[in-house]
Amino acid sequence: MLNFITKYLFNTNKNDSKHKHNKIFTCNDDITTKKEDYQIAICQDGKYAATFDKANFRIRILENTDHRPFKKADITQQTSNNLNTSNSDEIEKTIAHFKINDDFTINKFYNEDFVLPLFKINKNNGALSNNVMADNSNNSLNTEFKWSLDISNMQKQEDVNIILIAVSRISIDEDMKQITNNENIIQDYKKGYLKSQKYKILNNKTNDDKEIAIDIESEEIKREIKGIIYCLKLKEKGNKVDQEEEEEEIIEVTCHFHGVSGICNFINDDFDASENGDQLKSLRRFIILNFQGIYNFEFNDSFDFFNLTKRFDYPKRIRREFDNWHSGDCMKRLLSCIYGKYFLVTQYKNDVQSLEVYDLSKMELETTAKRVENKEKFVKQYNYDTFSVSRLQLCFTRGVKYIRLFYLENGLQVASRYFDEIETIYSLEFINSDEKLLIIGKGQEEGLKFVIWDLYDTGKVVSTMLPRIKNLDDCLARTSGNILQVDNEGKVRSVLKRIENESERKNMTKAEKLKTITHIEKFKGTKLNGVIDESHTIHFDKNIYSDFKPIVVEKEPWVLGDYERNSYCLYHNKHRTKTETLQLIVGRSTVQIWHQVQDDSKNKVELPNKGEPFLEYIWTNRIPVNQEREETKLHIGEFKHGSSDDRLNDFYLKVYWYEDVDCNKRVKVKEGNIKEKDKDDKLRKAGIKEVNNMKRCVKEIMRKDITEKFQAIRHACNALEHLNKRYKSKCLADNYNRVHKYEEIVTYVKHIIWRFVKHKPNDFMLLDVRYNFMKSLILGDSDHLIKYTLFGDGREQKEFEIRHIPRNILWPGEKFLRDDDLDLDRFDRKDDRPDDNEEIKPENNMELAIYHCKGRELKDTNIVAYFLEYYSRNATDCAGWMSTVSTAIPLLFKYNYDDYARKLFNKECFADQNHFSAQEPDEIIPTEYLERRNHNIKFRAFRPIVKLKSDKYEWCDGILNLFKLSFKHKIYKYFEDFDNDLGKSPLALRVVPLPAFTINDISKKKVANYDFKKIILNLLWIVFVPRSYKVRRNERNKLSPFSRMLLYEDNDNIYDNPATEAVINFRWQEARNFFFFDIISIVFSVTVMTIMLKNFHFSDGFGSVIEPNTELIVGISFSIFLLWIELILYLRLISSKENIRFILKFVLLRNPKNIKINETLYTGSAADTTSNKKFNITLQTDFDPTSKDDNPFASFPTAIEATYFWIGGNLSQRDEFDFWPIDLITLIASIFLVIILQNMLIAFMG
Fold first, then answer.
1. Strands 227-235 and 649-660: what pairing?
2. Domain locations in the chain?
3. What pTM was computed for the model?
4. TM spans, by residue (predicted)?
5. Separation between Cα atoms, residue 889 and residue 887, nearest integer Å
6. Residue 569 near residue 548 (C-beta atoms within 8 A)
7. Of 715, 768, 1033, 1126, which has the fewest CB atoms closer than 10 Å, so is most exposed?
């Protein structure tokens, strides 16, 4: 409704004369009068950039031809993030180029292909200038002011594309400093709509055409203008328009002038996932930040107007810092707090480094991260804080060598790293779809040092040196994995492309190309009993390994029958008595590398695995169990090998296989169909192509996958899950030999994981955040490995390092569960176990652990106990550790593990939660609680204020504050202070460490574009039809965890703890008003009925009553009225509006096509008095059921009127319609309406 009123008021604005178009023709001539001084800005999605020559007042908009979009994890065929296929790092594609005056009006508009002349020095006269007046005037502006520039994302409309450019001229003394010496300067601002001016840009100017430019009205208004928003409307490519208009009109520009100066920032909504990557949603707001606060501008969908509505205050910490700022302006400090739509506030107190990240699109606190510092270490160097935010993580540094990564959802630290090669860090940016981190800083060499940290692939760090960039704040723009730089001549370059070109120049020596085995030798292996194994083919190069013998024969014990296997010799070396062999074996669904070291001169105890073969690497295709068979086996596409690194030959293996698209169905696949697909070249070249419900999957394995442990540990975790699914599906048939071989392989896989967890704990946690290793350990039933990962073995000498953090939000594009992950429950289920009435799909590791253990005895649910103990133990410092526990608590009650919940609520984290250790309690506890004595009160529950406060005043704020705070607070305070000499009780701040425990998942309806008719209809709907429930019975998963816990619990033990009491106390403050009417109606009706029954006797009823009690009669009437309202409200049990509408149409008889009508027939005779003749006459009623004159129920207003007159016995529906449901409805209506209302009338009359 507010949007409708706003648009209505705007459309009736009388300043339409301000919006008439001014004509400006494009030109190809101009001179440069001053030395260029450029500033650059990039939009939040990285597709467009803008440069601003602060000396000559020229703005240029470019399309980023090196744009690197985000690629989601589920896109198997990922193209390169770099869309620029050329080696050029320069961005040259110009969208618009124009020059402005000192009052921000447009002076000239250049053609897109126009190249500006560079500034030249005249040896005799200095600067080469043909306009001395303009040169002198601009010099004063450049010395007194700083500038801010920002550009928005492309906003797509129906027929045009819109780009917004904001320019602000900042006065340091007025806008970035606290004004104390001049009391006459008014620091207030003027709210309202901005003045605007429109330009129509034309080309092909003729002699008859004249440029029309309307200047700003007066010098006074010019002085008030401190910034501008240029709205450029571009024709969408391929749009068909008139030929004449297409030749002349190129672009339209609207200028919106404002009187607030500061740092400009266009704020977009959250990321929107799409098939080709994440795209930023539409523009949310435009803000300007200066010393006073954050100024908010609103606009309509077509950006025809901008409205300065309110000013938000900074968080208290940054406000105190600005108020006590003594060393210059706060602009540099503000710039260090801003990244895209995020605002960072830092504080160090009580040995705790606290980071608060605010989301400027919502103007509220997004997350709080903190780190307890070591008291024995002191920071000797300090630079400005620098941070960057990806889709999931926060990267922060104080500017000196040390970088920390935090998970944005819960504020927990993910990783940290110390960089010796960098002395000072200037900037951070996530690149390559957030897979890598770019650090820009100063090293010991001359120039800028660019360090790329590969976070999830190798963990390695690569450094590159580039020439020094002067003034990074103005000449460097970064966002969303895109970094651009502008030089002194106005040329824009891609920094990432420059780094790639520099790295390629250094690595001119390419690696040796792999070659296919030419001297290949094949032979069939032998089984353990010495018989030739026709299914096992051994490949090796006879020129290199003439005496190679396989060390393993068959390593997939879950395959019951015989199956095809191929083995390759990767390394075989026999030196004196020592023989070392590496064998790669390709089975039906796995690729394994086995390693054996034998030495006749040593004891077996001294050799690895006592001289027996052991698993070095394993990869599985993770095909569902119900699809693994001979027809879907692994096929070898190609195998190459290269030089040796003394331990392992370089190799390349390509395998492919086929899967059914619908993994829940087992479709019988014929071998002939597979061979036909093999003949399709497109399927061979593509990674995944779907044909006839079958998809072709391809995997490439190289030596780096084995030597670089990041990939090896990832594949090992997946293999552990893969193997356990086959064990649970009874593929081993409980055969002793097969089970023994299976346990042997699982032991080797667990050893690979254990070794990485022990020696690389930081890398394991980082990879766990990316690939969710803990989920694989849960599905692999690795209880002991989970325990070691969470708690260690208790023998570590140094401080235990965290290896796992909880999380609910996954990597963009990833799904928490695969199609067959929950099949383990189906494998374990017995035939007599009842099915679950509610479909449960776990969404995090804690829920998966409980679901995975359901149906087991309490002693067999160790992993549930491990996770609960681990999370609650660490939650004393930060409530984010319980983010998954809070959502999983309902499952503890659902599967009868409430004993865990009872013990959980008595943990230390609920009694001594130190979440706000870096803040003063007075900053969090509400003022009304601080001022009261708080005697005889155990606790008060409240929600901390996370939204930024604004100066926007609503008309109802004063009334609410009067009754809610002032009046109520004074009454409580008066009675507490009356005759009370005791002092105020001390307050202890505690936090219930259950994030989002009372927040539901009910999606809010999108705000529709209301018109007057829709508003009236909605009001009538609310008045006459009660609201239905937001959640149906089969949608309980949308309820909050707290509500679901109450539904599942079957005893009262859960309420016997302070945490639950605090939650109920907190929620009751909002819900109590909804129960007041129910309680009053019930209590009042029971009380009246009790009083009335005192005079009732079984012999004569109320015959003994001599004189009626007027007060009792009034009470009876009102109790009946309240119960009637309760009955009406119970109509909300009809959950859908369609059912209510159907009943209303049927009852109100709006369209009675199939209902029989009572045809009234009158017969008689008439006589003509003149002729004395008699006539027989028959009269029949002409009833139109669709007309409201005949059928009052055909129209809603007349139906209400007719229903009201039922009280008087006017039952028109019975007289006109012959249908038994109408008689039944009339009877029910008479009972509930006529009798009740008549009783009320009699009571009042008495």
1. unpaired
2. 20-70+89-114+143-180+189-238+246-310, 517-664+692-742+751-759, 1143-1244
3. 0.82
4. 1012-1029, 1074-1092, 1112-1131, 1224-1245
5. 6
6. yes
7. 1033
